Amino acid sequence: MRKNVGAVLRTAAVATAGAAAAVVLPIAPATAAETDGSAPETRSQLVLTMSASTLAPGSRFTLECQPPGGDHPDPVTACATLSQAGGDFDKIDPNGMMGCHALHDPVTVTAEGTWLGEKVTYSRSFTNGCAAMVATNFVFMP
Questions:
Q1: Is the pLDDT reported for residue 31 higher than 50?
Q2: Which of 13, 32, 81, 124 has the most CB atoms within 10 Å of its CB?
Q3: Which of the four pLDDT bands, split at 50, 70 and 90, describes residue 18?
Q4: Is residue 12 part of a domain?
Q5: CATH number of 131's domain
Q6: Is residue 141 part of a domain?
């Protein structure tokens, strides 16, 4: 009789565990979606370009923020820099730690896309790629 009681208890434990899992599973995907925190209209997606110059071939990167991603070499830092500037490229604090040569090799940087759901179009010319990188705190890179 003890064997039968043990078997009944094991069966009850498995059935209870299975029922609990069945209750938890439908809730888990909804919870994961709610904690994402980024609705599609609040994501930031930008295409950043630097024109070719005499000495550099130019570049084109995608930058995604909220969460950071894309093929930008350092999306975490670039997103943080833009966040500190409120998404306004003209309000980026330049990187004062790096100096540039006085070489005249003009480049133009552009940004197109969205920042927190708002359309972004930005274009500015610099004396060279180094000046562009320093002025934008490395958001734009060659």
A1: no
A2: 81
A3: very low
A4: yes
A5: 3.30.350.10
A6: no
110, containing H or E segment: strand 107-115
The boundaries of the domain holding residue 21 are 1-36
Q: Which residue has the tokens 């904690």?
A: 35
Residue 1 has pLDDT above 50, yes or no: no
Specify whether 27 is located in the same domain as 57.
Answer: no
Segments in the chain forming alpha helices (H):
2-35, 75-84, 129-135
Decide if 29 is inside a domain: yes
Point out the least confidently predicted range of 12-21, 31-40, 48-57: 12-21
Q: Report the C-alpha gap between 65 and 115 in whole angstroms.
A: 8
Please state, in angstroms and rounded to a whole number, the distance separating the CA atoms of residues 56 and 105. 9
> What is the C-alpha to C-alpha distance for residues 98 and 137, in angstroms, rounded to an integer?
10
57, 89: one domain = yes
Q: How far apart are CA 121 and CA 123, in angstroms?
A: 7
| Predicted confidence (pLDDT) per residue in 53-86, tens digit | 998 899 999 999 999 999 999 999 999 999 999 9
142 assigned to some structural domain: no
**Residue 83 sits in the same domain as residue 29:** no
